[in-house]
Amino acid sequence: MKKVLALLMVSMLLLAACSSGSSNGTESKKDSETNEITAWAWDKNFNIKALELAKEGYASENPDLKVNIIENAQDDIVQKLNTSLSSGTTKGLPNIVLIEDYNAKSFLQAYPDMFHPLTGSYETDDFVQYKVEATSVDGENYGLPFDTGVTGLYVRTDYLAEAGYTVEDLQNIDWKEYIEIGKKVKEATGKRLLTYDPSDLGILRTMIQSAGKWYVKADGTTPDLADNDALKLSFEIYKELVDNDLMNFHSDWNQFLATFNGGEVATVTTGNWITPSIKAEASQSGKWAVVPHPSLPGMESVNASNLGGASWYVLNVPGKEQAVDFLTKTFGSNVDLYQKLVNEIGAIGTYIPATEGEAYQTEDEFFGGQTIISDFSKWAEEIPQVNYGMHTYAIEDILVVAMQKYLDGQDLDKVLEEAQQQVETQIK
Amino acid sequence: MRIILNRFKHNSLFYKMFFITILIIVTVSTLITWTTFRMSEKFFIDRFSLNNSKVMAQIKESLGTFQYSIVIASNNLMNNGTIKSFLTGEHSNVMLGTYYYNVKKQMANIKTSVEAYDVSILVYGINGISYATDRPSWAASDEALHNHFITTNTLRQPKKLLFHLEQQRNQKQNDRSIVASKAFMEPTSKYIYGFMYFTIQEKDFRKFYSSYTSLGNNVLVMDQSGTILSSNRNEFIGKKEPELLKYATKLEEQQIDYMDADFKGKDHLIMVEYLPTFDLYLVNLIDKKAAFANIIDKKSIVLICILFIFLAIIIVFFASRGLTNSLSNLVKQIGNTPKNDFDHYIPVTGTYETRQIGLAFNSMLDELHEYVNKLVLVQKQKRNAELAALQQQINPHFLYNTLTSIKFMVQQGGKEEAAETVNALISLLQNTIGNISETITVRQEIDNLKSYVLINQKRYGERIRVNYFIEPECFEIQIPKLILQPFIENSFFHGFNKKNGGTINVLVWKEGATLICEVLDNGDGMEASADNKLPITKRKQAMFSGIGVRNVDERIQLIYGEAYGVTISSKIGEGTKVRISLPVQKN
Predict the structure, then answer these.
(1) Looking at domain A151-305+391-426, which CATH architecture does it have?
(2) Residue B413 sits in which domain range?
(3) What is the pLDDT of residues B534-577, one digit of tens each?
(4) What is the pTM of this model?
(5) Is residue B371 part of a domain?
(6) Which residue on chain B is closest to A407 by alpha carbon?
(7) Is residue B110 in a domain?
(8) Exposed, middle or buried: residue B173 (CB in 10 Å: 0-12, 13-18, 19+)?
(9) Which of A9, A355, B379, B498 has its CB 3.0 to 4.6 Å from that of A377, i.e. a possible disulfide?
(10) CA A159, CA A265: separation in Å to the nearest integer?
């Protein structure tokens, strides 16, 4: 009897113990043979959507691989990468990360070991060359090009017509011709030629890249301001636009959209990613056209340039093989995916074979039946490749000040000389 | 059914005990569980209110820091000449470009004070020009800004830093922001030249307190009109809750830490902290059920309780069954003991108590036995003595009658006859009175019979003849005295009242261990009574001794037991047969 009682007691204790502590879950352990990769990107409607389309396409290739897509603000991604990489750890970092081309070099040069080289894993000749350059360091390719920031000149055909111009008159013009047209248009319609944020020098970047120049020399580190003819000419053109009151000013993105959606300016010169915003004002359908970006007059310059754009990078963390496989089989070679990207999110890739696809040949009624995707793709291939270097935004901050000085009437050479010195001391 | 009822009856002690124990266990467990719930809830409420008032103080402090940074920024904006000239007067396009550049630079400086928070600064001048560090969606166009309720509100109270909730209804849920607004006012002339707006996304504002919230533990920020500006619960935001405002003012007035109140039909614990610089209430709304239900896992406690009760009941069942079983067995045994079967002893088992009861019962049975045996013995002896006395007693009438007969014989000259009769009388008296032993041999009894028959034949004539058929080996067998004589006597005096004469046959033989004596007559016979007993004779004076036919049976049974005795069968007109059975006993 005593034994039976003791047994009962023990079983009661056991039961009580069991009922309380059974929730300690199992911890899944990840190893190098992981079947899960993570990708970081910004912009839910653009980059994230592109990733999702890629994931969809990849599911038929390798259904076992789980792709986690995580949205982070671009600044957060930059910050997290900087924090983790500078402390020498890749813990908590994703397998795939999207980096803006202007920023890419600063990471690739500072932490080359942390990134997994993609050289040879995809056909670089299939991509537009300026993107390949932007994703490479020391002959080693680290990134898979994604969207192009190929620029175009969006023009209001109705305003041009008022001033007696047709779209044909604007094909492959240079900035001088552009300003002259602008003057006429303003006379005829009272509308300024274009609008810009005085603290954003994106317009300068497009100008100098069309001439194959950048803020730095081809090595990516030596500042190239004072003796940069293209830059000097760009400054002069900018001032001329301002002085002739052809430049409207806005202070933020919303004002920017409001200006051209409200019909306040005759043209918009920027990257192709503005297309959805232009088309947002449905009442202006048929009144727009896209012509090639103006070139710099009097020097070797093409009617094509770039503004923005980003590429995919693979970090040197477990699962990199899977990540590379994912990227090369989607963005690296899938023509259909690029058709979808165009159709569903209006993203123009830099994969040349894709331009033969049907989606690229679609005529856009908003732009008077122009095949703008195809045009942009064509121009993208012409963009001169430059080495963006590591310091694009740092230099630009200094140039914004220089521009104001120049607009205030200071001597351009002096202004650029000062800027050159300032940059040299700052980015050493 | 009957069996169950019987079982129940036999085990009623067990069932009573068992059910009472169950009742007590269940009641006690329920009470303890309930009390535990109440106490722990009370404890948690106390802890919660203590903790949460600390948390509220912390939130208040961080909100204060936040507000201070906005105040600094607003002061800087107010004192900034560039911004003032930007917001006043007309600007040409070229100038505007320069202004944008310069204002951006100034703003970058001013923004440093609110850098820690995701706050966007928007300034809007009376000249219709605005500048935003990060233009919020609610102020998409200058026109919208001009007509916005925040602008009109700010114009009404230009000196105050006002907090508003701005909801973009047509868009997604998360597009809500908290806007702090103030007017640009010249200190001396009170001239209002613009407005400043500090916009923080509601979901960012929430970060001040959201880490302290949990399921059922909600925080909300409410303005003086009862409108909820911010909450960790989306559904509250933008709603007007006058009920809550009433509680808040009450708590604030009475300076109480917390109160229990009914909110939206649920029991809530409400704590309120007034933020004077914001002119807002910080409300901590704790849904008791949701918050505490999670802490105390009532379900599993109740389940564990039930399990323990169940186990306890099983233990109680077996334990009390063990205890009461011996008792109820004992009761059953005792109950089964028949009224006159004192030999039925009960087994001594079970606990000490039941064993003692069993022993006591058994020893009581022993004593009873002994007593009854004694009593039977005494009764027997008494009866024996009585019978012995009766058989010593020779009826005086018999002697008197016999002697009278002898006198007549002598007078008539029958000397021989008289002597014979006297001898028979002597032998009869000798054997009955003289012999003190209780039993005599068959031979002696037959002699007695012969003497008695002789005396009677002398007196009443020889119309009744008596024959003796005795098995020779039976002569020495011992039998009680005067055992046949009463039947002979009976036949003589009652058997031949109608018939004039007849025969009486006396037969004695042995059947195994039994001695059979039969007295047969061929007289009148009689109505056989149901119990085979002889009718009571009234003629006492005719009897030889105190022993009558009725006593014989009684005597035999007293001496030899119930296996022996007298049986009588009779038919009217044919005669009577008396059969006596006795054990064979020899000296």
Answers:
(1) 3-Layer(aba) Sandwich (3.40)
(2) 393-583
(3) 555 555 555 677 677 777 888 888 788 888 888 888 888 888 88
(4) 0.62
(5) no
(6) B98
(7) yes
(8) exposed
(9) A355
(10) 9
